[in-house]
Automatic annotation (TrEMBL):
This is Serine hydrolase. The lineage of its organism: Bacteria, Pseudomonadati, Pseudomonadota, Betaproteobacteria, Burkholderiales. PANTHER family: BETA-LACTAMASE-RELATED, BETA-LACTAMASE-RELATED DOMAIN-CONTAINING PROTEIN. The keyword Kinase does not apply. It comes from the Bacteria. The keyword Hydrolase applies. It comes from Ramlibacter pinisoli.
């Protein structure tokens, strides 16, 4: 742990400036405030958080931990990558083909017609679907022209301002409504709550899952096979989403570092993880619901092989094959993420 003392101290000194209790100062908590009315409100449950915490694993072993690494906190868009893992599980079960049009297997849930009917699972996974419609009361337009920290694209217009849609696969846009539509589609494939599927196929086989929860919006329910099931979001933009501990996040990162294999068992299909790391043709900074560091575009100090799960509120899961490392940090002020990565990179380089 001594090697990472400087990085840990730096992270601990730069906590995200959100209140620890969302109810204490609602106007300073979350990212929904930037949305156009009436969509600038929470629609699902949220809960108080802990302080800065994290875990470092090198060579498959935990070498550092700080804060409350087992505390299950909201993790925002890190959950998007979890949807990509579930898509891999669906592939292993013969429930999808990434190149297949979603509506071919799931008619009647929003993937029909000339435009949406052309959308494939790959389009959804790389955020190029251009899906158009309303998902549980949220129109895709709410997220038109959205900019996030690591998106190099210049602004195209005001957030929520309607723009001309492009053909599926031809335009990249970070869009939570479309991600929620992907989650709905996966629910229809598994026909079980995605929380249960993720626990059974990923977290529990890794030895984790304590305190894990994946909650939906208050009104995001569907009835399948006579059961009322929650459709969960791929983040906590409007509340709900994944609550998970830093150690469990590190376990998931280790699974990806190990190519989807754990304790001699292939939990994800062979080649799936490598495909997740391949750059999107029109957005080479992005893979399948994960961020890439090609040419050091995200973090110059990190190896170019590095890739990341990133969530609002300062959540990072950094997978570094060059150093056989997984680094998790939570509730770090994003304005200081580069300083943290630089200090960890220096420690990893020293061995």
């Amino acid at each position: 742990m001594t090697a990472f003392t400087d990085a840990i101290a730096y992270a601990s000194a730069h906590e995200v400036p959100w209140p620890r209790d969302p109810a204490a100062d609602p106007a300073s908590w979350g990212v929904h405030h930037a949305d156009p009315a009436p969509f600038n409100r929470l629609r699902g449950p949220v809960h108080p958080r802990g302080g800065v915490s994290g875990v470092v694993r090198v060579g498959g072993h935990e070498v550092a931990a700080w804060g409350e690494p087992d505390r299950a906190d909201l993790t925002f868009s890190v959950a998007k990558t979890y949807l990509a893992l579930l898509a891999g599980v669906a592939l292993a079960r013969g429930l999808l083909d990434p190149a297949e049009r979603v509506g071919h297997r799931l008619p009647g849930i929003g993937f029909d017609g000339d435009h949406n009917g052309a959308i494939t699972w790959t389009h959804l996974l790389e955020q190029t679907s251009e899906w158009s419609g309303t998902c549980f009361g949220m129109p895709d337009q709410v997220e038109h022209n959205r900019r996030v920290t690591h998106d190099p694209k210049p602004p195209q217009g005001r957030k929520g301002e309607a723009r001309v849609l492009q053909a599926p696969g031809s335009y990249w846009e970070y869009n939570d409504v479309r991600i929620n539509q992907l989650s709905l589609a996966l629910l229809h494939l598994f026909r079980r709550p995605l929380q249960e599927v993720f626990l059974d196929t990923v977290l529990r086989p890794l030895g984790g899952g304590e305190g894990f929860a994946w909650q939906g919006y208050d009104d995001a329910w569907v009835t399948l096979d006579g059961q009322r099931l929650p459709s969960v979001p791929g983040g906590s933009h409007w509340g709900g989403g994944v609550s998970v501990g830093a150690r469990d996040q590190a376990r998931v990162g280790q699974l990806l570092l190990d190519g989807g294999r754990h304790a001699g068992v292939q939990l994800l299909p062979g080649g799936w993880v490598e495909r997740m790391r391949q750059p999107c043709a029109i957005a080479p900074f992005y893979g399948w619901l994960s961020w890439l560091n090609r040419d050091g575009a995200m973090f110059p100090q990190a190896s170019p092989e590095s890739w990341f799960m990133v969530g609002a509120g300062g959540h990072y899961v950094w997978i570094d094959p060059a150093h056989e490392a997984v680094v998790v940090v939570r509730w770090l002020d994003p304005a200081h993420s580069t300083g943290f990565v630089e200090r960890v990179a220096q420690a990893l380089a020293r061995g």
